[in-house]
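Both lines are given unchanged directly below:

***
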Amino acid sequence: MTSHHAILAKTAGVAALLALLAAGTEVSAQPTFGNPSPTAGSATSQKANAAADSAAYKEVEYTNKSKPGPALVVIPGEVKSNNATFVQKFLPNNIADFGELELSSANFQVLERSNLGPLLQEVSLAYNMGDPAAARKTMQMGKLKTTKWIVKFDILKAEQIAENKSGFDGRAVGGLISMFGGRAVGAVAGSVQTQDTTGVWLIGMRYKIMDASTTEQVAQGYKELKMEVGATQTSVMGVSEGAKGGVGLDTMVQRLVQTAVWDIDAKYK
């Protein structure tokens, strides 16, 4: 092979390598999606997206994530709140799903409930009743033999503890200004309407860790978080602006589970 051919071959090899690297970069890049909303990029869109970003899911850096945790099963807990809104929205399985997700993220060996099939009901009954004989019987079946812990998350409190409203109605002020000759100013003042509403919830969650062999309690803890929802509305001369939002119940429950799992990972792994 001549030196000219060698240079060409080397150049082709480098080009092929760069192409492969570029292709690898494209494959590993996170997917991006467009926004077809007709208000995309507007002031209202930016404010709404900023609020959504604050409530979006955020991964937790668990303290002992590098250390593998024991094998465990998350069983559905209890929702003991009397709040109708919360009870209608959440079932114990929803909360257990969040628990499996976060415990897996913290490097615990989670045997998912979907893999238990009909055994799940037997397992849940044995540990909720504290029946060691039934627990030992179920733990001898299949993948359950390696299980060390049974974990459950219970909602003990979900209540709106405070609500505050404030507002301004410009009609009375506008009427007074108009009486003294300032009709144009009075009309503007009379059109001003503002309304702010804020509500605060307290949601409390208990986690419980039970020994898979004996049903005895290994540990438990309680976490409580505050959730604020609010709305604001302003109108002047027919031009209005409003906003409402806050952290939703789904997000609040997930954050409570994250807080509980952080505790479990830090203290009991």
